[in-house]
Design a protein that fits this description.
disordered N terminus, single chain, globular, 266 residues, mainly beta, twelve-stranded mixed β-sheet, outer membrane lipoprotein receptor (LolB), chain A, disordered C terminus
Amino acid sequence: MKIFRAAPYLLALALMTAGPASSQQAMPTAAEPPAVPAATGTTPPSGAASGWSVNVSPSTSEQTPGSDPAAGPQQGQERLQINLTPEQIDLVNRLSAYFNSLQHLEGQFIQINPNSETTRGRFYVQRPGLLRFDYAAPSKLRVVADGRYLSIEDHDLRTVDQYPLEATPFRLLLSEDVDLLRDAEIVDLSVNGNIASLTLVDRSENARGRLQLFFTTDEIELKEWVITDPQGLDTRIQLSHLVQGNEKSRDFFKSSALDFQSFSQQ
């Protein structure tokens, strides 16, 4: 049975039906919060020659749909879309425009796992389709999206778990043309002062789980998100020190352990 650590819960089991909850193993929490790592851009040797083990998960469209309410809408299921007021429609459109305006974004993150353990690190987003999370020491985890696949690297175990990006909620935010009203069902939208909370489900049959976004309303800026997986477990990501950074090469977002010619689907 494949063992998954809690830290990459953000982009693995929290995004897809990759396996039963009993197959997850929590990673120990450090006594002191680790320092946020700096991006080095260095990569180890790739492919089979490096001794890395690669596991490729099929798209969820090849899996049997579940009946969990956290799953995306399937054929014959009741739609979850709420009725939006004109003001709410305008707010969602402003959020879509915010994502479309972001070409390069980077900052720090704190991740709170379903078991309340906390990890942190630095993240980079480059639209369309590119994403990278570097977890701070003592973790040796890295998460990258190259526009097609989302890869979770464990540089300690020398393993890579790979998922189709289209089967994750991040498809909605990393696409070339973000339109949340078109591509998502709005499950809930509330505003408290200057902070709004938007809960949505991807309309795509490939994507499962719920995504809740927290953002400021006076000047739109993403502050936090919560992913609810098909088992109903929440993974929370809090963002800080956001800057619209410089463009990076596509190699920066390529899995450092993968040789795409050596994949063997399991």
